[in-house]
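It is worth pausing here to work through a concrete case rather than discussing structure prediction in the abstract. The textbook approach is simple: state the sequence, then state the predicted structure, then interpret. We follow exactly that order.
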Amino acid sequence: MSILDLGVPETGATHGAAIRLPTANRALHRIAEVRRLQGVTRRTIARRLNLDSATIKHMELPTTDMLLSTLYAWQEVLEVPVAELLEESADPLSAPVLKRAQMLRLMKTAQAILERSNQPSIRRMAQMLCEQLVEIMPELEGVSPWHAVGRRRTQDELGQAAQRRISTDFLPDLAE
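Step two, the predicted structure:
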């Protein structure tokens, strides 16, 4: 059973009252699959939807029942038609959506090369590639590069938190 936050006049329930509706034991959506095919991380989705990663992980479960407005938010973030999120077949994304996802990843890569390259010839080629991609698919205009906030640490490296000094004033006297 799932609980939806709805008001249904016929039942006497008011807005905000919980109503139990039967849930399906079958897959309701393919959000996780579409997200992976689009090359978007859960962390990115969480940031864009202003939710925590645990909530995103739960929402991605195929049997999670969610509001239509939530599906539309996912559709906007993943930039695919809602129908692609609800499709229950074992087939991959439809050919046009798959091509669009591939073009989007290609544009993000070209933008990243353009942004990070220090060599003028490489920047010029990346700029030409970006322009050609926009020529083929105008909606790619304004696509941002892949995020590069930091780099992954190896097992041997310490994070910033491990390198900070911690005051021992709050610890009880261990000598006693």
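Step three, interpretation. Confidence is low (pLDDT under 50) at residues 1-21. The longest helix spans residues 95-116.
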